[in-house]
Amino acid sequence: LGVRWVILVDGAAPTLTGAPAMPLPAAVRDPFARQLDLRRIEVDPALDLYENLAWETG
């Protein structure tokens, strides 16, 4: 078993609420974008949702 979902948050609330953006540093965000076993899923501009493609049910 392992981690299936990873969420990186760029704001205090979803974009639709008008909450101010709080971007993560590139040193945090970039390694996730480079992971070959993570697929980014577009959900909301205030967050990055990644699915671990190597995840297995157990």
How does this structure look, described?
The chain is an alpha+beta fold and 58 residues long. It has a domain at 1-22 and 38-53. It is 16% helix and 31% strand. The protein contains one helix and three strands. It has one helix spanning 26-34; strands at 5-9, 38-44, 47-52. The protein has a three-stranded antiparallel sheet with strand order 1-3-2, covered by helices on one side. Strand 2 (38-44) and strand 3 form a beta hairpin. The protein is globular, with a radius of gyration of 13 Å. The protein starts with a strand and ends in a 6-residue tail after the last strand. The relative contact order is 0.36.
Task: Provide key terms for this protein.
alpha+beta; globular; 3-stranded antiparallel beta sheet; 1 helix; 58 residues
Short structural description:
This protein is an alpha+beta fold and 58 residues long. The protein is built from 1 helix and 3 strands. A hairpin with a 2-residue loop joins strand 2 and strand 3.
Helical content stands at 10-25%
Q: Provide the low-confidence segments as ranges.
A: none
Say how many strands there are.
3
Output mean pLDDT.
87
Spell the H/E element sequence.
Answer: EHEE
How much of the sequence lies in strands comes to 25-35%
The gross shape turns out to be globular
Largest beta sheet: strand ordering: 1-3-2
The biggest beta sheet, please? 3 strands, antiparallel
| Rg computed from alpha carbons, rounded to a whole number of angstroms | 13 Å
Distance between the termini: 6 Å
Structural class: alpha+beta
Tally of individual helices: 1
